[in-house]
Automatic annotation (TrEMBL):
Residues 99-179 form the Large ribosomal subunit protein bL25 beta domain. The keyword Glycosyltransferase does not apply. This is Large ribosomal subunit protein bL25. It comes from Flavobacterium silvisoli. One of its GO terms (biological process) is translation. InterPro entries: Rbsml_bL25/Gln-tRNA_synth_N, Ribosomal_bL25/Gln-tRNA_synth, Ribosomal_bL25_b-dom, Ribosomal_bL25_C, Ribosomal_bL25_long, Ribosomal_L25_dom, Ribosomal_uL5_bac-type. GO terms for molecular function: 5S rRNA binding; structural constituent of ribosome. One of its GO terms (cellular component) is cytosolic large ribosomal subunit. Residues 6-90 form the Large ribosomal subunit protein bL25 L25 domain.
Length: 202
């Protein structure tokens, strides 16, 4: 999985006044959990643009004055009105421990059902995977080459390489729905087939 680096600075004061002062200065208060002790730090708001406002999944290297921490985004809080980032929680990665993370779904192939006029519906844009940090995928590939009109693609049909999908077997990733135009055409064809053929006048 691709990684991005965020440079920050550790902070000792974690009270409300100190936190407000950070936000007023364009900084985001953050915490790293999962280690021996929580690590409190702050980083510039713009540093999180490539992590938060993207459909892609990343691991993160938090650089605190040369000391690096390999982490993943665990939780993020937004302001209810302005939608600005208020606080971010990270989780420390351990090379020997599996981690659960959401990654995007990537559609590949061409569906015969779509070629016939069906509508492709993506039921799951992201899926939870469990893997060692080194095996975390950038995305989960969903091949729709065998999807006919009305078919569904379940998680059990997805290829998993050194990772597990944390979803029930009946989870639908995507499906090809019959479009209104295709349904109308089918209905008209059915009516035409049932209509009695007109005989020739004698």
């Amino acid at each position: 999985m691709k990684s991005i680096t965020i440079k920050g600075q550790e902070r000792e004061s974690v009270g409300k006044k100190a936190t407000k002062a950070l936000r007023d200065a364009g900084m985001i208060p953050c915490v790293i959990y999962g280690g021996d002790q929580p690590v409190h730090f702050a980083a510039e708001e713009k540093a999180f643009k490539g992590l938060v406002y993207t459909p892609n999944a990343h691991t993160v290297v938090v650089d605190l004055n040369g000391k690096t921490n390999n982490v993943i985004l665990q939780d993020i809080q937004f302001h209810p009105v302005s939608d600005k980032i208020l606080h971010i929680d990270f989780f420390q990665l351990n090379d020997n421990k599996e981690i659960i993370m959401e990654v995007p779904v990537k559609i590949t192939g061409t569906s015969p059902g779509v070629l016939l006029g069906g509508d492709l519906r993506l039921n799951q844009r992201r899926l939870k995977v469990k893997a060692l940090p080194k095996n975390l995928p950038d995305y989960v590939e969903a091949n729709i080459s065998e999807l006919q009109m009305g078919n569904k693609l379940y998680v059990t049909k997805l290829e998993t390489n050194n990772f597990k999908l944390m979803h029930p077997d009946n989870t639908v990733v995507c499906q090809v729905k019959i479009s209104r135009a295709a349904m109308k055409a089918a209905q008209e064809a059915a009516k035409a087939a049932k209509a009695p053929a007109k005989g020739k006048k004698k």
